[in-house]
Amino acid sequence: MDSRIKRTATAIAVATALAMPGVALAQTDTEKALEARIAELEKLVNEMAAKQAAPTVVVSEAGPAAAPAPAPAPTVNTANKGSLTIKGFVIASLYAQDANFAFGNGQSAEFPTTEYSKDSWFLGGDVRNTRLTLDWKGPEVEGFNVGGLLEADFFGGFPGGAFTDEQPNPRMRLAYVDITKGKTTYRIGQAWSPMFGNVPVSPTHVAFPLGYGAAGDVGWRYPGLFVYHPFSKSTKLTLAAMRGSWNDGSVPFGGGAGESGTPQFEARLDFSGETFSLYLVGHYDQKDCNLVGDQAVNVCGAGYTKKSLDGTAIEVGAKAKFGNFSLQGNLYSGTAIGQQFAHITQFGDISGWGGWVQGSYKFSGPWSANLYYGLDDPDDKDVTASGNSRLKNEMIAASVMYSKGPYVFGIEWLNDTLTTAGPSTSFSDVDIEGNQLSFSAWYKF
Questions:
Q1: Is 394 within 8 Å of 375 (Cβ atoms)?
Q2: Count of domains forming the chain
């Protein structure tokens, strides 16, 4: 037993004897000193008891102990003894536009379709970028690590009716199963095609990035088989065989030109370093223009008479960082790949190219600024011969963003000019210009 506790116990015994009834002692100076000592020891006993009830804190000689680490994020357990991570963001945007835009106004605006002749501007609000992602990590099964992902947002159209604007429908973006063995991952389901590469930074254009299907940003989500294999920390190979697609499928999963042709094949090679990344992608597919059963109608475009149409493309993308400044972009060239949102999202035997570049600067603190330029330029003769009209599109966008923890606030200005073929009686092209000014607020979880 600790010597201090022994002394305390002895003192308590003496105190008890002094307090016993029938014992009358004179209050000598010695007795008074003993009583004071007993009171001091009783206080010591109480302090020791309080310390034993509280958790022990060890303080080093070098200084006070560091603050405890924050508690780990809660994990949702699944029935198969795996884990589920729930993540996503809520994005609300207020905007003003002076034209109608393709893919929709607000957060999905890409290129202008009509300018307003009377009202110069209109105001709107949009929350459809809001996204929910469910990411499962399953248990190991016979040496394989399994998992899955499901992702949705609210760009699934509107239900109709008087209040349809405030009730956007959800839509599925991604849904796949991952099976990993060693360094190689096999992905089965709907995922991004390898052509979907770098993404411009924007506070407002997220599900529909700047220039997507309009100014050089291409790629789409397809069901298929995807293989990812890193050769090293700096080099990775991606292979994909995806369901064929075109613009003629009147029924989902129907026998359109893409579905009845070959799958879409893509291969991508990524390189990365401490301050840069670079990738190269190749694409091939073949559309069946007469569909199953050799129908008489050719569905690959106006004036196209061959039984099949080959789609080919090559794309390169890069990122680089120079201190607080960063630069990124994509560049593609291809033929008959409208299903990948190329050629200003036009379908037919069309060749063309497009690309975009964006510079970003990170100021001290939470502020940053971004400047974007994009261009898509399909061949004019191919466009008009296939019954289309969009000849060229150029986009400029500038934004300032404030990011702090899970919150992001940003202001963005977008200007887009679409050049279209004029009427058959006219020899001049027509430019349609549209502007959008937006303010967006994020909460990421």
A1: yes
A2: 2
